[in-house]
Structure formats: C-alpha cells, structure tokens
TrEMBL record:
GO terms for molecular function: malate transmembrane transporter activity. Belongs to the SLC13A/DASS transporter (TC 2.A.47) family. DIT1 subfamily. This is Uncharacterized protein. InterPro entries: CitT-rel, SLC13A/DASS. It is found in: Plastid, Chloroplast inner membrane. The chain crosses the membrane at residues 6-27, 39-59, 79-96. It is a multi-pass membrane protein. Signal peptide: none annotated. One of its GO terms (cellular component) is chloroplast inner membrane. Its main location: plastid. It comes from Escallonia herrerae. Keywords: Membrane, Plastid, Plastid inner membrane, Transmembrane, Transmembrane helix.
C-alpha cells in the first residue's frame, strides 16, 4: 500500500465495513471470534514493540556478530567479555528453547 500512500489498515477496515453494511456479516459474528481478537491484540503489541526496538537501534545492534557487538562495549576489562558472552548465551538458549504452545 506504500505506492498509494495508504495505511494498510484502511482497506481492511473498509472491507469489514462493506461486509457489515451489506449484511454478509453482523456484529455478533465479529464479536464471537474471540481467538481472532486475541491474535489481533497480541500481534498489534508485537508489531508496535518491534517498531520501537527498531527506532531505538536495538534490532540492528542485536543482529551484529558477537565480536563486533563486543567491540562496541569493550572497555578493557575481562568482566565485560564474560557479561556479554553470558547475555549472548542466554539469548541463544532462549531462541532455541522458546515455542508457541498449540491449543488442542
């Protein structure tokens, strides 16, 4: 939607409005989809948080190789190396062990 300079939410809300006005959907149908609203709320939070992390430069910093990242924080003390190594290890373990539980 960048070519038209329209936010992506505008056509989605327009489509929903048309479906509601034509009677294809009614408001009770929309409200009964609890899992869809839950998913929408969580993804909105994640997208907002991702945007803020990008604005702060944290995303570009976390994507650097470890030696480059260590060079940014190196102050000549070995403890800095071990703290950064520990944080990197925790991040790696978290990334490998995280999973999204599936509802059955």
């Amino acid at each position: 939607m960048d070519a038209l300079d329209i936010a992506s939410v505008v056509p989605a809300m327009l489509g929903l409005s048309i479906l509601l006005l034509w009677g294809v959907l009614d408001w009770d149908d929309c409200l009964s989809e609890k899992s869809a609203w839950d998913t929408l709320a969580w993804f909105a939070v994640l997208v907002g948080m991702g945007g803020q992390l990008t604005n702060l430069g944290i995303i570009s910093c976390s994507g650097m190789p470890f030696p480059v990242m260590l060079g940014l924080f190196w102050n000549g003390r070995p403890i800095t190396y071990y703290v950064m190594l520990g944080l990197y290890w925790i991040e790696l373990q978290t990334a490998l062990s995280e999973h999204v539980p599936v509802k059955s």
